[in-house]
Amino acid sequence: MAMAEKRNDKPERPTSAPRERTGWLSRIAPGVRNAFSKRETPENLWVKCPDTGEMIYRPDLEAALWVTPSGHHMRIGAAARLRYTFDDGVFEKIESPVVADDPLKFPDVKSYPDRLKAARKASGEQDALALGYGHIKGQPAVVAVQDFSFMGGSLSMAVGEAFIKAAKEAVKREAPFVIFTAAGGARMQEGTLSLMQMARTTLALNEVKAAGLPYIVVLTDPTTGGVMASYAMLGDVHLAEPNALIGFAGRRVIEQTIRETLPPGFQRAEFLMERGMVDKVVTRAELPEVLASILETLMMGRAQRPAA
């Protein structure tokens, strides 16, 4: 005889959703929990030192002009550089000429106009070279700043036109011309048009020197490629920030070409100063004083136009 199947006639208990666990204070006063919610910490509140790995409080780093406690000079944008250079951060912005964005219709994974749009949004500048006129410890000067964060500070038609505009402004205002260089080379999306700027900027400098005006170059990290091979090495005086990378080709390319191991510190500011390519290595905090002293000396005996 087959056994009857055992049945369970007990009704199943309805499953209830798990209750949210709340503290006693929230149960008494529901609004209190939201009032004391955890505050969000900004992602960029701490900055890591590239040398030591130390985490540095961002406001402290800004107060130190973006120089870490270990002495590492971090890269800064054009706006900050102009603000740190001119007296009280006050200067007249010189507008750069407008050029065609994509003259060669360069094919790329991402379109060249889109790259320019993204770089302009991130930097707030039209291209990699920003211009300003003001006073450095009382000495008038036209200052150009190359921003490495804008497509690697690459030399482009816009950079060439801006440089020429700065040179003409220096002649027009009878003021010295100071440039802070930072570049990874020519901009490949513009091909030969970018390489032409090496010659054009050199010709513009001839006008500055013909007018008897000083041209001072401050080499910052990194200054390489076509910029190094043109206006970065044509100054009357060459200054550099500590440990700045300065050279035409990369270390690995040179070692593979000459089949030799390069010495330690090769292409760094201190190495080049020892060999006469850089006149002086100057910390960021000391740059305005040093620049003003050089400008005053080189402009000595020349009647200067009163400030506007």
Account of the 3D structure:
- There is one protein chain.
- By secondary structure, this protein is α/β, with parallel strands linked by helices.
- It folds into 2 domains: 42-72, no CATH class; 75-298, Alpha-Beta Complex (2-enoyl-CoA Hydratase, Chain A, domain 1).
- The protein is built from 11 helices and 10 strands.
- The strands form 2 sheets. Strands 3, 4, 5, 6, 7, 8, 9 and 10 form an 8-stranded mixed sheet that branches.
- Strand 4 and strand 5 form a beta hairpin.
- Helix 6 (157-173) runs parallel beside helix 7 (191-210).
- The termini are far apart.
- Give the overall shape, derived from the CA principal axes: globular
Q: In what range is the share of β-strand residues?
A: 15-25%
SSE pattern: HHEEHHEHEEHEHEHEEHHEH
How many β-strand runs? 10
**CATH C-level category of the largest domain:** Alpha Beta
Number of helices: 11
Architecture blueprint of SSEs:
Blueprint (H helix, E strand, L loop, with lengths): L23 H5 L1 H6 L10 E3 L6 E3 H6 L14 H8 L5 E4 L17 H12 L5 E8 L2 E8 L10 H17 L3 E7 L7 H20 L4 E10 H4 L8 E4 L5 E2 L3 H8 L10 H6 L5 E2 L5 H12 L10
Parallel strand pairs: 5-6, 6-7, 7-8, 7-9, 8-10
Antiparallel strand pairs: 1-2, 3-4, 4-5
